Amino acid sequence: MNVLLVLLGILAFTLDSEIQDTSVPQTPPIVEVGRGEAEKPLKIAAGVTAPRVIFDPEAEYSKVAEKARHGGICVLWFVVGTDGKPRDIKVVRSLGLGLDEKAIEAVQKWRFDPARKDGKPVAAQINVEINFHRFGAFDGTENKKVVELLRNAERGSAAAETKVASFYFASENSADQSRGIALLTQAANQGFAKAQFQLGERLYRHSPNDVQDYISSYTWYSLARLGGEKKADKPIKELTPKMSPEQLAEAQARVENWKPAPSK
User: What angle is formed at CA 180 by the lines to CA 175 and CA 181, rounded to 5 degrees?
Assistant: First the structure.
């Protein structure tokens, strides 16, 4: 994996022009209380030498990104302390699908020969680019279809949320599974029948520890069927004899009173 260390402003007079680049938002300086003068992070400029990386293990791909065949460049901002360790890590340019977290995990293990001023170690602010190129070009070009899908999901597209949820479900990580459920629920709440059916399946057939929520499953299956999802007929027939009269009444009441949530 190609990891390119990008320093904020090699010369002081170039720093102002870099701040005007809206493609990489400028992170405000950190004001820290209780640290010594050497630990107040400086920008790389005249009189301040840049920190030098001496240990930089590669970032791993997330299973979610592998499923989506998604890659590109994640940009991180952080402070290299006088001890050579990164801290205060922030994502400047996000890739999503777990790659930002993987980039942070890797950088937390990095070690540097710290920046120096007047020959003494000082804390310094830097940016780094983590290039996930397995499914993209070495110039960091992302999979445009996946990027657009992620953007549409962020905008509240139920169809996009349902598709992105499927990427998360491909992972065995419990946090990824939870993200998938959250996205699927958002799409189902908007009245997207495909998401409603899949949410019913998740609650009925893929519940953790085999704890099945019959009422919620029946509710989502029924709403999906009302929305034209014919595949919901079979699980509804399976569920009905397993439910008590009280459970059926509760589920049917939920269906009758359900209203779609407004889209973003």
Answer: 95
